[in-house]
Amino acid sequence: QSVLTQSPSASGTPGQRVTISCSGSSSNIGSNYVYWYQQLPGTAPKLLIYSNDQRPSGVPDRFSGSKSGTSASLAISGLRSEDEADYYCAAWDDSLSGAFGGGTKLTVL
Amino acid sequence: EVQLVESGGGLVQPGRSLRLSCAASGFTFDDYAMHWVRQAPGKGLEWVSGINWNSGSIGYADSVKGRFTISRDNAKNSLYLQMNSLRAEDTALYYCAKDKDSHSSGWYDYWGQGTLVTVSS
Question: Does A88 touch chain B (CB under 8 A)?
């Protein structure tokens, strides 16, 4: 049972916009930044979004993040086949522990 | 270039111990908190433990508390995870991850490639 809650799957066709949601509580998302990680098959996770809505250099602006209260979301616009991956939300918890979502497997149809 | 290289994984019997290491390079190691994150086969990411820059603040997931011990040697640019009383459910790929801050923040900006731990008789 993951600390943060994500839908297990999402899908879209090339060019579409998809949104992945993440739900937490007042002790994690509600009081700390949210981060998003992309994990391509067989590779280590890669930072996609930091501090709720910021993109590291090199991450396309097709990826955007937002947060409201105890929930957050990742949006991917102009979906491409190479976006097919697992996506994880994460936040620090006030109990001094890390929290991850269970992951959302994105399929590009 | 930041590099994190984990080692020490392998096949171990239930109840036995294993020590993981993470060799860091390409950044000032003692400026940053570090973490261990694991991923069971076919499952999601699970934060295991984190340690701040000077080892003054350490945290563990409830699932490993009392069995695992995280430590670091800033002189050797290395992070460690001592795992005792291993269980089948500890079977996973263990990643070393660098924090963006000197204190644990959950912002893992670099990850290693992982070392596989298999607990089985």
Answer: yes
